[in-house]
Design a protein that fits this description.
Elements: H1 3-17, H2 29-32, H3 36-42, H4 47-58, H5 65-83, H6 124-132, H7 149-152, H8 165-173, H9 179-183, E1 189-192, E2 207-221, E3 227-235, E4 238-245, H10 250-253, E5 259-269, E6 272-276, E7 279-282, E8 293-296, H11 305-319, H12 329-334, H13 340-348, H14 353-384, H15 394-402, H16 410-423, E9 430-435, H17 441-453, E10 458-462, H18 466-480, E11 491-494, H19 500-512, E12 517-520, H20 523-526, E13 534-540, H21 547-554, E14 561-566, H22 572-578, E15 583-587, E16 598-601, H23 607-619, E17 623-627, H24 642-653, E18 659-662, H25 668-679, E19 685-688, E20 701-707, H26 714-721, E21 732-736, H27 742-753, H28 757-768, H29 792-808, H30 818-829
This protein binds adenosine-5'-diphosphate (ADP) and magnesium ion.
The site of adenosine-5'-diphosphate has 16 residues, from helix 17.
């Protein structure tokens, strides 16, 4: 590598290691690189490249650490592309597979190191018994001989003694096919029986372990064929009655005189302390079910907890220490993680609560780290492609903006600048434009489309419903047609209901290039449309589309620029994970003069006040939405059904009004008809489930009444609220929960307190988890075992380390990253990574 480049690389690495604090070198990066450009030129680097690097580094100091990381990665990728260098072979390290599994103590790691004595056993005799507990290590016995250890982990569960076809099938129901699957089948919870007490000190409700001798044991048949095994267990301090219900075989497990360990909860029977159904182990056997923090696994029918736990123990103690750790040591160290072997041991058979935390953190980190690597690598691929450049000369842009009926907000200008820069970058734009409902995303997209069509190229906009497509078509017509813009027939709309002859005409126009902008629904991709030169694809409300649909539209051009828009405020940590391969622009400012929607929380018994408001508004010529959470009354649900309610409202509440109905079970045409009737003012009240939540713009609607409001997420309610207040009139959002539950109402109060979608989204993520933010197609992708999408801190951390690693080894081609590269490849080939 040329000296100037290796110098740069060294700086970049140091910076990455320091989390981009700009202190890797004395005086900051740009200071120390003052004379670098001369060196680089002397090395024969291209003028363009040198200028690009120095200009990017000029502002380095002013950037946020995240931006800095991005800048350095960008620079390095460009260097690699232009010079063809690869950063491999820079460091050598032992292969992960060859690394010895680490353990904190010289003794064998994991579940069998017995720490029961630490609880402080008051009685000497007890302590002595403790030391008698043997460390017994069972190992997995293989029928066939496995070759590599990694390969052996892919062996089916039937290689285990005691697992035949029947049990294997039961395990499959839990998603366990191989030994590796077993390692990653984590406990559902843990019962902490690590506290040991004398029988005399057992109290009601305590979850503890006692040790004693079986004095008596008998079996009884209780009422209704219920078997009960009853035993008296005694230690020096006292005796305890123990009952096992419906486990008639217990009598065969125990004999009088056995020393046994019991773990469970102190209970009461006829005024005397007992233990019911405790876990048990013989004292001279390995204590797997008692006297420790005991894992409780998810089960399936016909699989016993005790059996599975025993099996897990055999597999985990044998294989966890032997599993190769795909994470490079540098990451393990700088991210302060536990080695994988230790984490797996501790996640299954932990020594302490702290160990559980550390283990689960490490394993959750792995999941997030892998995801970020996959997503970032995808981004690299994307950025490595070439795209047509479109510039927007200032005078042209000024004229376009001057034609608008309003001034752009600062946020719109900033977003527009991002987008125009992408269009002129020579790489395909891959950007998410996020902005609250009504923040004015359409006009920003329209200006981009104009920048593309002014050169004669084509743009397409896809919306999730016909109504939205029509709406966009209408706005684009006012924004783009005439006054030096498009001719009327250069902008067309194509939806399912477009008559066939017109479709034929549109297809022809797109193919010969006479149509410049087409707006449509999924018809755009289902129809055999060919474009002459599609260079910009805009997708509205992207979460309503599947990955395939987006890709299909993109495929109608050659590396077209892609802009996706969403009004769903997504917490930052989450958007990093779901949309991590997209660049992000946010419109976080509303156009001036918008009135805040007056939001009120009414109790169910105050409903009549809401109806009064609706009547008043309708009298003044306005319209109202009434939203219900479910379509039909379910047996288990008290939710109001839109269908039934519409009938009631029509008959009893608003007999003089036209009440439309909209719900998910209606066909697309019926839906469109209902929405069109409302849009055109033919109905005054729209009763609906949440299908209307997406982008519908009806400025004349001034009331949004949400029934069963407690059943909705805050972000969703905020979206619904955004359906009104779009015109000049004062608007209202009325929330009515199912019942007067104070806690729920408190949650809903947040909507009264803030109008900021992002704040509400953050709250929602905390309270209700990430599921509601995800489209159907994303749920598999984010199917984590341990990681939580609510854990912003860990998500950030994983992201940072993924960026740092890729900065050093963008293709993960260094030998020490081989395991990792394979894991990422696996991940992507599962159909997971491609989200955009
Ligand atoms: P959304 O971001 O929800 O898609 P739209 O693009 O539909 O928002 O814009 C909502 C409304 O605001 C439209 O009627 C649009 O004409 C108007 N609008 C957009 N930008 C501005 C602005 N800068 N000033 C005033 N009104 C604007
Ligand atoms: Mg919109």
């Amino acid at each position: 590598m040329k000296p100037s480049l290796s110098k740069l690389q060294k700086f970049f690495r140091l910076e990455a290691q320091r989390n981009y604090d700009n202190r890797a070198v004395f005086g900051g990066l740009q200071r120390s690189l003052q004379n670098w450009d001369a060196e680089a030129r002397a090395d024969g680097l291209g003028e363009d490249l040198v200028n690009c690097i120095t200009s990017k580094l000029r502002n380095y100091e002013k950037l946020m650490p995240r931006e800095r990381g991005k800048t350095l990665i960008d620079i390095w990728l460009r260097i690699e592309r232009e010079t063809g260098i690869r950063s491999k072979g820079q460091r050598s390290r032992t292969k992960p597979a060859a690394r010895k599994p680490a353990s904190k103590s010289p003794s064998p790691p994991g579940p069998l190191s017995n720490k029961a004595g630490e609880g402080g056993i008051p009685d000497k005799g007890e302590a002595k018994k403790q030391t008698k507990i043997k460390e017994k290590r069972t190992s997995v016995s293989f029928r066939p001989h496995a070759e590599g250890e990694s390969a052996a982990l892919e062996a089916p569960t039937t290689v285990l003694n005691g697992v035949g076809p029947v049990n294997a099938e039961r395990l499959e129901k839990l998603g366990i096919f191989t030994l590796r699957d077993m390692l990653y089948h984590f406990p559902r919870r843990y019962d902490d029986y690590s506290q040991q007490v004398r029988i005399r000190d057992l109290r009601y409700g305590m979850e503890v372990t006692v040790i004693g001798e079986v004095k008596r044991i008998s079996k009884r048949q209780g009422k209704g064929r219920r078997f009960m095994t009853e035993a008296i267990v005694q230690d020096e301090s006292g005796a305890l009655r123990v009952n096992w219900f419906n486990q008639p075989w217990m009598i065969r497990n125990l004999d009088i005189g056995n020393q046994i360990v019991l773990s469970g909860k102190g209970d009461q029977y006829l005024g005397r302390l007992t233990m019911n159904n405790p876990e048990w182990d013989l004292l001279d056997k390995e204590q797997l079910h008692t006297n420790r923090i005991v894992p409780v696994y998810p089960l399936t029918a016909d699989l016993g907890q005790r059996w599975l736990r025993g099996l897990m123990n055999r597999v985990v103690t044998h294989w966890a220490p032997r599993i190769p750790d795909p994470l490079p040591t540098s990451v393990i160290e700088s991210a302060n993680l536990e080695p994988l072997s230790e984490a797996l041991l501790q996640a299954h058979f932990p020594d302490s609560q702290e160990e559980i935390q550390a283990a689960r953190q490490r394993l959750a980190f792995d999941e997030l780290f892998l995801l970020h690597l996959a997503v970032l690598q995808q981004k690299q691929v994307w950025q490595g492609q070439a795209a047509q450049r479109f510039d927007a000369p200032q005078d042209w842009l000024d004229a376009e903006i001057a034609r608008l009926p309003y001034q752009l907000t600062g946020a719109q200008k900033r977003a527009l600048a991002d987008l125009l820069k992408d269009l002129d970058s020579g790489r395909p734009m891959n950007r998410l434009l996020q902005g609250d409902v009504g923040s004015g995303k359409t006009v920003v997209a329209a200006l981009c489309m104009a920048a593309v069509t002014r050169t004669g190229a084509q743009a397409a906009l896809m919306a999730p419903t016909s109504i939205l497509a029509e709406q966009h078509f209408a706005s684009l017509r006012t924004l783009m047609v005439g006054q030096g813009g498009l001719q009327p027939d250069e902008l067309r709309l194509i939806i399912g209901s477009t008559p066939e002859p017109e479709k034929v005409e549109i297809r022809a126009g797109l193919q010969d290039g006479s149509i410049k902008v087409v707006v449509g629904t999924h018809t755009l991709i289902e129809d055999p449309i060919l474009f002459s030169q599609l260079e910009l694809v805009v997708i509205d409300e992207q979460h309503r589309f599947g990955v395939g649909q987006r890709a299909a539209l993109r495929a109608k051009g050659t590396n077209p620029h892609l802009l996706v828009m969403t009004a769903t405020p997504i917490p930052r940590s989450l958007s990093l994970t779901i949309y991590g391969d997209l660049d992000l622009s946010i419109i976080d400012e509303m156009p001036p003069g918008r009135q805040e929607v007056a939001t009120h929380l009414l109790l169910p018994r105050e409903r009549e006040r809401a109806y009064k408001l609706i009547r008043r508004e309708v009298e003044a010529g306005r319209q109202a939405f009434i939203i219900y959470p479910l379509i039909e009354e379910g047996e288990t649900s008290e939710a109001k059904a839109a269908v039934d309610e519409q009938k009631r409202l029509k008959k009893e509440v608003f007999p003089n009004l036209k009440v439309e109905l909209l719900h998910g079970r209606l066909g697309a045409e019926e839906k469109d008809k209902a929405m069109a009737a409302f849009r055109d003012g033919k109905a005054q009240v729209m009763v609906s489930t949440t299908v209307i939540e997406v982008g519908l713009d009806i400025p004349n609607a001034t009331v949004m009444l949400v029934e069963g409001a407690n059943r909705f997420g805050l972000a969703q309610l905020h979206q619904l609220r955004g359906r009104v207040g779009r015109g000049a009139e004062k608007s209202y959002c009325i929330l009515i929960p199912d019942h007067e539950d104070a806690a729920e109402n408190e949650r809903l109060q947040a909507l009264l307190e803030t109008n900021d979608g992002f704040i509400l989204a953050e709250k929602d993520l905390e309270q209700r988890g990430p599921g509601q933010f995800l489209g159907r197609q994303q749920s598999g992708f984010l199917d984590f075992r341990l990681a939580s999408l609510s854990d912003a801190r860990l998500i950030d951390k994983a992201r940072r380390h993924a960026e740092q690693l890729l900065a050093v080894d963008p293709a993960l081609s260094q030998p020490e990253h081989r395991e990792l590269a394979a894991a990422v490849k696996n991940y992507l080939s599962d159909g997971k990574g491609d989200l955009s």
